[in-house]
């Protein structure tokens, strides 16, 4: 995996990123070449999140770059509990009592 593919997998537009901050792009590209992608991600996680917000990659028309807010997101519906539904009661088992041996002073 090269740096361009990595950026696309993190939903960062490599063209916009390189045009916007070429110095950081080059530095990150050199560092990425020297380490495993997972190590790079763990070291640069907060920076990657900021880059994603700034240089968001448009994916199949679902996202609009102008306001960088996702559109057409379907959220899962939470089903309400049925009326009269009873929550199961879990009984705790008592801990065994262990007597300590008496010590003589």
Describe, in short, the structure shown.
The protein is mainly α and 105 residues long. It is built from 5 helices and no strands.
**Unreliable sequence segments:** none
Sheet of most strands: none
**Overall form:** flat
**How many DSSP-defined strands?**
0
Structural class: mainly alpha
- Radius of gyration, whole Å: 27 Å
Number of helices: 5
CA distance, first residue to last residue: 70 Å
The percent range for strand residues is under 5%
Structure keywords:
105 residues, 5 helices, mainly alpha
Word description of this protein:
The radius of gyration is 27 Å and the shape is flat. Helix content is 42%, strand content 0%. The chain is an all-alpha fold. Helix 2 (14-20) packs across helix 3 (22-34).
């Amino acid at each position: 995996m090269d740096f361009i593919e990595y950026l696309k997998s993190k939903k960062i537009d490599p063209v916009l990123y390189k045009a916007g901050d070429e110095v950081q792009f080059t530095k990150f590209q050199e560092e990425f070449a020297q380490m495993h992608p997972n190590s790079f991600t763990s070291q640069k996680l907060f920076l990657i999140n900021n880059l994603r917000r700034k240089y968001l990659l448009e994916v199949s028309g679902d996202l609009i770059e102008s306001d960088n807010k996702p559109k057409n997101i379907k959220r899962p519906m939470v089903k309400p509990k049925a009326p009269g539904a009873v929550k199961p009661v879990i009984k705790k088992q008592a801990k065994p009592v262990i007597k300590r041996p008496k010590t003589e002073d």
